[in-house]
Design brief:
2 domains, Rossmann fold, alpha/beta, 6-stranded parallel β-sheet, about 15% strand, 9 helices
Amino acid sequence: MAAAVVTAGLARTATLAAPAKTCANASLGLAVPATGPAAAIGQEQLHWAQFGLARYNAEHKTQYKMVVGDTQLPNVAAAIGVARQFASNRKIVGVAGPAGSQEVQAFGASMTRSGMAYVSMSATRDDLTNGRRPTFFRVVGSDDIQGAVDARYAVNTLTAEKIFVINDGSSYSVGVAARFANVAHILGADIDLDEITQQQTDFSPLVDKIGNDVDLVFLAFQIASQGQTFAQQMRAKGKSAIIFGPDGMFSSDFTFEGAYVSAFARDIHGVKGTAALIKAYEKKYGKFGTFGPPTYVAV
């Protein structure tokens, strides 16, 4: 992957106690985008969840099973269907996921009515933890943190003075883009704002708005393949601004040479005590990015 990495870091995490009773018929729900535009991320999350639950069962002599719900991010209707399926399944004792912020919002009603805990491994919208979803937890930092860190890096390290910020209209994207723009403006950058849709494929009219004096384009996209297409169309039109994206762009679907991406959690390679864990995971599933390990924690 050609993109450099800026780490936004971890915020507060939620620690859930192990269940008091062992039940051979109990299951963990896992809500991930196993298929669809965000499947590259979802498959990594799926594998780390399977890996984590297998280790837990082996270490604690339990027999928890996993029920996988494919949320097909950004298909909110699919997420609502998964939430209802999980809430009505009496064998499910809790849920890891969902992945996207709009999916957490979609899960809220079903999870609250059922009293079922759900722990996201990658949903970062600030207000998800404002108390309106009493059974919701997450193990990663919020957009308030990531957007600010990204803005400081763009202005202070990449020395960007004129920045074009683009969101994709999703609840995740709008939040992180706004935080980035506000902090970058406070730091002295000149900011232009615009928006796409998650169904859009032709970005030519928007690319034409990016002046030659723009130093950096912040693509607050949730679907990394859109970022790849946007970057390619930028270069095809001779735009040379630095391309920078938040965690949604940290995917094998975004490999644009010279671009920067951030992450809500640090790369665990080299972290003390993780060598054996990494070796065991890679032996079974191969290489991974930053979306997998938080899933292990959520499980």
